[in-house]
């Protein structure tokens, strides 16, 4: 859904051309992970040349056809009057795109009454002077290097607590909650309905001092509202940095057995070291790379930067790597 918003924003600003082209995107309500967020995006789309149509499960040719890009990483456009496309990651790198980030219309609009309602739900559970939202991928699959290591998570959580903050885990993960031993407040435990849960999520995304997460779709929503994100244990498989130039990236440590040293981040994303970019630790190791958690010193430096009260209101020209 976040990539859809980025696309709609590019359309509304005229960054992409659509002369003579009608675009329709389809959605299935029962498949939406967050109805409230989608409703905000749907309302925003009314100002764009893009139409969003509702589907039901009786349209399998659209629902399950693998030729449709459900992640919306390939954006349709028009080039010299001919239907064309552009990679979202390429659009993000167009010079000048980030300069408009902090205009009033840069972020996803919402009804202030929604945030007031969310605050009434949230305030009784706030026990600190400030708070940060967390979302961590924990899937046990062939892409586990996208997950954030438990030692890195523990370090950030302890930094938040020792600095007088309160960490809120946006989505419940049994194994993660057990590992953290009650150090975080789990947002799903505070809600009695889906609507309450989604309102609490919105409040975290909008009002957090910063947000911290893995390479996962659940980490992106705060960027729609201008909240800086600390990408923890960032893996070089993602050759993209997002549009929010206030984001901070802490890459994983990658050791080359052949070179007998750690790679710089620039080296890790180069074609020469393409096999360290695998999201599967077995594949990376079989080609001579040991991929481990981020350097603790880098995590501390990143935290000290992004946790400053005025950091989110500053206009940084480019993202920061630590």
Structural features, described:
Helix content is 30%, strand content 19%. By secondary structure, the protein is α/β, with parallel strands linked by helices. Strands 7-6-5-8-9-10-14 form a seven-stranded parallel β-sheet, with helices on both faces. A three-stranded antiparallel β-sheet has the order 12-11-13. A two-stranded parallel ribbon has the order 1-2. Helix 5 packs across helix 8 (194-207) and helix 6 (150-162) packs across helix 11 (296-306). The longest helix has 14 residues, at 194-207. The model has no long low-confidence stretch (mean pLDDT 84).
In short:
With 322 residues, this protein is an alpha/beta fold.
Write the layout of secondary structure elements.
Layout: H1 2-12, E1 23-27, H2 35-45, E2 50-54, H3 60-63, E3 74-79, E4 82-87, H4 88-92, H5 112-122, E5 130-135, H6 150-162, E6 165-169, H7 174-180, E7 185-186, H8 194-207, E8 211-213, E9 229-234, E10 248-251, E11 253-256, E12 261-262, H9 265-268, H10 281-286, E13 289-292, H11 296-306, E14 320-321
Parallel strand pairs: 1-2, 5-6, 5-8, 6-7, 8-9, 9-10, 10-14
Antiparallel strand pairs: 3-4, 11-12, 11-13
Features:
322 residues, alpha/beta, 2 domains, single chain, 14 strands, globular, seven-stranded parallel sheet, Rossmann fold
For the record, the CATH class of the largest domain is Alpha Beta
Q: Name the quaternary structure.
A: single chain
Instruction: Catalogue the unreliable spans.
Output: none
* Molecular shape: globular
The number of helical runs is 11
Shape-level CATH architecture of the largest domain: 3-Layer(aba) Sandwich
Distance between the termini: 28 Å
How are the strands of the biggest sheet laid out side by side? 7-6-5-8-9-10-14
Number of strands: 14
CATH fold label of the largest domain? Rossmann fold
């Amino acid at each position: 859904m976040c990539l859809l918003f980025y696309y709609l924003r590019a359309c509304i600003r005229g960054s992409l051309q659509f002369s003579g082209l009608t675009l329709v995107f389809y959605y299935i309500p029962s498949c939406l992970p967050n109805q409230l967020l989608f409703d905000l995006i749907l309302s925003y789309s009314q100002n764009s040349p893009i139409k969003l149509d509702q589907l039901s499960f009786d349209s399998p040719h659209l629902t399950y056809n693998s030729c449709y890009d459900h992640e919306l990483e390939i954006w349709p456009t028009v080039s010299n009057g001919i239907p064309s496309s552009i990679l979202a990651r390429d659009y993000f790198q167009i010079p000048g795109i980030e300069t408009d980030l902090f205009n009033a219309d840069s972020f996803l609009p919402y009804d202030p009454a929604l945030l007031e309602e969310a605050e009434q739900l949230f305030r009784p559970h706030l026990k600190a002077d400030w708070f940060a939202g967390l979302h961590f991928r924990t899937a046990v699959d062939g892409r586990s290097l996208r997950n954030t290591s438990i030692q890195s998570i523990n370090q950030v959580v302890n930094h938040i607590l020792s600095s007088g903050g309160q960490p809120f885990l946006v989505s419940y993960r049994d194994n993660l909650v057990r590992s953290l031993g009650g150090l975080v407040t789990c947002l799903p435990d505070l809600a009695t309905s889906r609507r309450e849960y989604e309102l609490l999520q919105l409040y975290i995304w909008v009002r957090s001092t910063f947000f911290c997460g893995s390479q996962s779709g659940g980490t992106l929503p705060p960027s729609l509202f201008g909240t800086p994100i600390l990408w923890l244990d960032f893996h070089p498989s993602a050759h993209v940095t997002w549009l929010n130039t206030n984001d901070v990236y802490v890459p994983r440590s990658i050791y080359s057995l052949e070179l007998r040293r750690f790679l710089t981040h620039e080296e890790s994303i180069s074609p020469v070291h393409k096999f360290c970019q695998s999201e599967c630790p077995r594949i990376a190791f079989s080609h001579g790379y040991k991929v481990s958690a981020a350097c603790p010193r880098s995590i501390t430096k990143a935290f000290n930067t992004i946790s400053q009260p005025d950091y989110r209101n500053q206009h940084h020209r480019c993202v920061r790597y630590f």
